[in-house]
Write a structure and sequence with these properties.
Number of strands: 11
Strand order of the largest sheet: 1-11-10-5-8-9
Mean pLDDT: 91
Distance between the termini: 31 Å
Strand content: over 45%
Low-confidence stretches: none
Largest sheet: 6 strands, mixed
Order of helices and strands: EEEEEEEEEEE
Helix content: under 10%
Length: about 140
């Protein structure tokens, strides 16, 4: 099976499973501000020509909530409760993303890492989305 992004241009899908996925963002060559998703014009200084960069793969949970309404239906069953959080990436942008884990797994200020999840299978392709999950304790 080949993994493909649900939408091109938002994250990488590494060939090596040991390699973490990365969000695809941009950096302003004038002021150095980073953005996700990518943009051509800097929202900080309005300079044009932002450069494409890879962001992450880790960040800090700024805030979060737990949703009890199904996100989507998967093979005749609803995928129920899930977390949604605002994650501050090391480069600066704050990203809103779905969180992987149970309600008691999250706390503000904790370290998270980017992860991919298979959303569906279409022929020989697995369609994947990005999510953040708590960094495993070492």
């Amino acid at each position: 099976m080949t993994r493909v992004a649900i939408e091109e241009g938002y994250f990488t899908i590494p060939d090596d499973p040991a390699e973490p996925p990365r969000l695809l963002g941009s950096r302003c060559p004038s002021c150095g501000e980073h953005f996700f998703p990518r943009r051509h014009v800097c929202a900080q200084c309005l300079a044009e020509g932002c450069e494409d960069v890879e962001l992450g793969p880790r960040g800090t949970l700024w805030t979060w909530t737990y949703v009890h309404v199904p996100l989507f239906a998967k093979k005749d069953r609803s995928v129920g409760s899930y977390g949604v959080g605002q994650v501050d990436l090391l480069e600066g942008p704050r990203v809103q993303a779905i969180l992987v884990g149970e309600r008691d797994d999250f706390s503000i200020g904790m370290e998270l890492e980017l992860d991919l999840e298979v959303l569906s299978a279409e022929g020989d392709d697995e369609v994947v989305i990005f999510r953040f999950r708590p960094v495993a304790a070492s």
